[in-house]
Amino acid sequence: MKIAIGSDHGGFELKNFLVDWLKKQNYEVLDLGNHVYDREDDYPDFANAVAVEVTKGNADRGIAICGSGVGACVAANKTKGIRACVCHDTYSAHQGVEHDNMNVLCLGARIVGDELAKELVKAFLNANFIAEGRFKRRFDKVIALEK
Ligand code: RB5
User: Fold this and answer.
1) What b-and-e string marks burial along 56-75, b requiring 16 or more CB atoms within 10 Å of the CB?
2) pLDDT at residue 80, as a whole number
3) Which residues contact 140 (CB under 8 A, 6 or more apart)?
4) C-alpha triplet 122, 49, 113: angle, nearest 5°
5) How far apart are CA 49 and CA 55, in angstroms?
6) Could you say which of 9, 85, 87, 99 is catalytic?
7) Distance, CA 71 to ligand 1 centroid (Å)?
8) Which residues pair with 125 in a beta bridge?
9) Which residue's CA is minimally distant from atom 3 of ligand 1?
C-alpha cells in the first residue's frame, strides 16, 4: 500500500517519525514535506499535496498532519474525492474507513504523541470500506453531494 504524507511545521517531527515507522512496516511512502522545519510554512500546501496524490491515484491513502489536525482536515477536504477526518481515537480511525470510506487521516501533533499516532495510523491503514448495504447507500449519498 502506498501512503502519501505531509505536514506543516506544527506536525514536522511527527511526520518524520511516521515516515520512518511506515517504511519499517514496508509501506511505500510518498513524503510530500515539508522536508525542512520552517515555522512560516502553511498547512494548506501540504494537506493539498496529500489530497492531490490520493485523488490522482498515486497513493492509496493519505495522512495529513498539522498542529491540531483541524487545518489539515479542512484543507484536504477541499479536493473532490477526499474524505478526510481528524481521528484521535482508534475507534474513529478504523470505523471512519469501514463506514465512511475515509481516505485521509488527519492528525494533530500537538495533541497526540508518537505512540498513539502509530496506533491511529495502524487502525486507519488496516481498515477497509464495507462497500455494501447501508454503508454503500450512505456513501453514494455523500458522493451525490459533491456533484
Ligand atoms: C501552525 O502553527 C498551526 O496553526 C497549524 O499547524 C494547525 O494547527 C492548524 O490547524
Assistant:
1) eeebebbbbbbbbbebbbbb
2) 97
3) none
4) 35
5) 10
6) 99
7) 6
8) none
9) 67
Q: How many domains does the chain fold into?
A: 1
Which amino acid is residue 16, in one-letter code?
Answer: N
Query: Domain limits at 67?
Result: 2-146
* Whether 94 is catalytic: no
Query: What is the CA(141)–ligand 1 centre distance, in A?
Result: 31
- Other beta carbons within 10 Å of 47: 32
> What's the whole-model pTM score?
0.98
Instruction: Report the CATH number at residue 66.
Output: 3.40.1400.10
Of 9, 66, 73, 85, which one is the catalytic site residue? 66
For residue 115, report the distance from its CA to the centre of ligand 1, in Å. Answer: 21
Q: For each successive 10 residues of the chain (147 residues), what is the average pLDDT? A: 98 98 98 98 98 98 98 98 98 98 98 98 98 98 95
